[in-house]
Specification:
about 210 residues, alpha+beta, 4-stranded antiparallel sheet, two-stranded parallel ribbon, 5 helices
Length: about 210
């Protein structure tokens, strides 16, 4: 496994669906940054990787466990298998909404094998990368049940809900999610750099994000 550092614009494409029109100066500037990376041959689309941990199943209870995995959080990697490196110079506030949304959606998954989780990443989770700018992207989820789950989660819990910067320091940034029900802000989500020999099996320095709104 390797690490790769590229412009944050390239991390999530142009921050809009491929068929959506970029209409802001900021988005256009990000697109220009991505084009520059492409000229250097470094640009690639980044895809969610669900970081799983095996549940500790007690003997005799195997038949009661539908999902032998626990979702620890998410990371990002490209087609080359390179993980996105955490960068202290990047303000992850601009990306935390789709990150948190994807993380929460992943926590609703229950799959028996890692192969099923990887299919979920490709067929469901990666379709949500542009949701903050273009919610219609959720229509690209072919599985009807997951499409409805994603839409319900987005419109009920995320759309137009403020997420603010919390504590930050070297190697981590935390974010506040303001509940739509009682307006209390909780600290559910962290983007950080992983150290060597981490339990997630990620290369040292990789981006790791975790947390939940529930």
């Amino acid at each position: 496994m390797a690490l790769a550092i590229i412009a944050c614009a390239a991390m999530l494409g142009t921050l809009s669906c491929k068929n959506a029109t970029a209409d802001s100066a900021e988005t256009e500037e990000m697109a220009d940054d991505m084009a520059g990376e492409e000229e250097q041959g470094d640009a690639d689309e980044w895809y969610y990787r669900v970081v799983l941990e095996k549940r500790k199943i007690q003997p005799g209870t195997e038949h009661t466990i539908d999902c032998p995995f626990y979702v620890e959080g998410l990371s990002l990697l490209n087609h080359n298998g390179d993980y996105l490196a955490y960068n202290d110079e990047v303000d992850y506030q601009y990306y935390v909404t789709p990150f948190l949304f994807a993380c929460q959606l992943a926590k609703e998954g229950e799959f028996a094998t890692e192969k099923e989780w990887r299919r979920f990443e490709k067929e469901v989770l990666d379709k949500t990368r542009y949701v903050a700018n273009y919610a219609q992207c959720l229509d690209e989820i072919s599985d009807t049940e997951w499409r409805e789950k994603a839409k319900r989660l987005w419109y009920d819990q995320f759309k137009n809900k403020p997420i603010c910067v919390g504590e930050s320091g070297y190697g981590y940034q935390k974010f506040l999610y303001c509940s739509p029900f009682d307006y209390e802000c909780i600290l559910p989500f962290t983007v950080k750099r992983v150290n060597g020999n981490n339990k997630y099996g990620l290369p040292e320095g990789a981006v790791f994000m975790f947390g939940s709104i529930f």
